Amino acid sequence: MASADSDTQPTEAIPHAVKIIVAGGFGAGKTTLVSSVSEIAPLSTEEVMTEASYGVDDLGGVEEKTTTTVALDFGRITIGTDIVLYLFGTPGQDRFWFMWEELAAGALGAVVLADTRRLDTCFHAVDFFERKGVPFIVAVNRFEGSTEYSAEEVREALDVPENVPVVAADARERKSSKEVLVELVTHVLRSRQAAMSG
Amino acid sequence: MTAPRDRVPGDPWDGGRRGPCAGGDTSVGVVGGSTVGPLVRPYTMTKGRTRPTGRGGQLDLITLVVAVSDREEDGREPEHEAILRLCRRPVSVAEVSARLDIPLTVVRVLLSDLLAEGDLRTRAAPPVTELPEKKVLQAVLDGIRRL
């Protein structure tokens, strides 16, 4: 049955959708961050890729097709009647780079979640966003038992430029995750303004 | 007392992530003499097509689609029916994929069918290379602050 809404709004406007990427190594807390702010329990969508597998020369040049499934976790925040924000976690493994391209296209910006126990796992993300010109910030996620590093130490270790914010975060806390997102969007707006004024 | 909107049992918006074995044998049909499980062979739903047609080629992960409500038609494929039921309000391509547990590539083909038939509509997407406008960014910032 048609709802009252659809009767009064025959051509309901479709909201504008925007996305933010949450990147970082495997286990850095990407899905934790997404779920702490998302209005829906994080969803997982799958991309099935059929690719010719290389490196099977031992089989005498027999070309094999392998099917790889990449899962993308995401959440949603309804900003208003006209804007919906999606938060996408990147696939944790490097071999799924092809998905990063699609994720980065048109993204508002990205949060690189750093785990100080394994800082090297987010080098790729930092490189990628710099190369693609996607504005990003680094959020250092707190883990039990990890040594506390200052934002400056992390900045230096990751070789992140001065104008890129590096903030501390606790992805389990909604308030903290929210602050990370506020920091990112503020940074995006600031970068935009800087670019406009020359 | 009140469960969050997305946790209400039976809510079509609930769940969406079913394991690869969801439905088990009951979801396995016999087509043309061979056993076909939708998740084992996702492209059977698209009759072997792997690329969306027409405007479907522009479907991004976050492109929002909504069913054109006044269209009733018999004989639609069950997957198409399921998508239209889900899209009574605007839903992103990624959500359609996740809620119906259909891989993205397959969902894009099915959505392009529905767009071509006029059963779905979508917002004209700006080129993906274009960053969101400043007023959109400001609205997003205000919205996150209100969380």
Structure description:
- The complex is a heterodimer of chains A (198) and B (147).
- Chain A is an alpha/beta fold and 198 residues long.
- Chain A has one domain: Rossmann fold.
- Chain A is built from 6 helices and 7 strands.
- A 7-stranded mixed β-sheet of chain A has the order 2-3-4-1-5-6-7, sandwiched between helices.
- Chain A is globular and about 45 Å long.
- With 147 residues, chain B is of the alpha+beta class.
- Chain B has a domain at 40-126: Arc Repressor Mutant, subunit A (Orthogonal Bundle), CATH 1.10.10.
- Chain B has helices spanning 78-86, 93-100, 104-117, 134-146; strands at residues 29-31, 34-36, 64-67, 91-92, 120-122.
- Chain B has a 3-stranded antiparallel β-sheet.
- In chain B, a hairpin with a 2-residue loop joins strand 1 (29-31) and strand 2.
- Chain B is elongated and about 45 Å long.
- Chain B starts with 28 loop residues before the first strand and ends with a helix.
- Residues 1-40 of chain B have low confidence and may be disordered.
- At the A-B interface, strand 1, strand 2, strand 3, strand 4 and helix 6 of A face helix 2, helix 3 and helix 4 of B.
